[in-house]
């Protein structure tokens, strides 16, 4: 973690931070100081490839899902060939992921469904012309596609749309800091957390918000033994204050 000697500006315990929107913006501001915004996009893939990548990554470490994704690209020339390949071969190729026996048929089912819905064209590029909420609804009508995957396809791919994905790290930070109730599941949390961001934010700022929340969860707000003593959000975080007492992290 970088040096945390930041000037946070006005007292963050002021009444205004009882408003979740104000608190969300202050959290975003502080984490951008730590991690640097704008955050560069981590890859540059078309939306259909991003959908495949997201489906493979469910409950799987990034290294394993990335290895499976690259194996599919090496073995077949395009996603239509993956769609039409023998199921056993697809399952064998994505063996590094969790539950390949479930993901292989689901992947082929989704590729077939998109082809049918788009009149024989296997592409998601058309989503660029749809409002974000309509595009997310279209994606979520596909089998096994939920809020996180639909947001990832729109935000992470070359579409670069302002859709907020929420992964487990992002969700944990949001729950501990009180942006969402601790009992709110990841799926429903997408709408709540997105509503706390300014509606005029572009895709880059929405992406930044996801990335800095995720990075904070990975590098400081750990699942076990969070490093509250060096957290720039401690005075905003009821969970951290309960663990370590009241007060701001000293500069």
Please provide a written account of the structure.
- The structure is a single chain.
- By secondary structure, this protein is mostly helical.
- It has two domains: 106 residues, Orthogonal Bundle (Endonuclease Iii, domain 2); 110 residues, Hypothetical protein, domain 2 (Endonuclease III, domain 1, Orthogonal Bundle).
- The chain has twelve helices and no strands.
- α5 crosses α6 and α7 crosses α8.
- It starts with 19 loop residues before the first helix and ends in a 7-residue tail after the last helix.
- The relative contact order is 0.15.
- The N terminus and C terminus are likely disordered.
What's the short story on this structure?
This protein is mostly helical. Helix content is 53%, strand content 0%.
In the CATH classification, which architecture of the largest domain applies? Orthogonal Bundle
CATH class of the largest domain: Mainly Alpha
Number of strands: 0
Cα-atom radius of gyration: 20 Å
Order of helices and strands: HHHHHHHHHHHH
- What is the count of helical runs? 12
Distance linking N and C termini: 14 Å
Descriptive labels:
Endonuclease III, domain 1, 2 domains, single chain, disordered C terminus, 12 helices, disordered N terminus, 251 residues
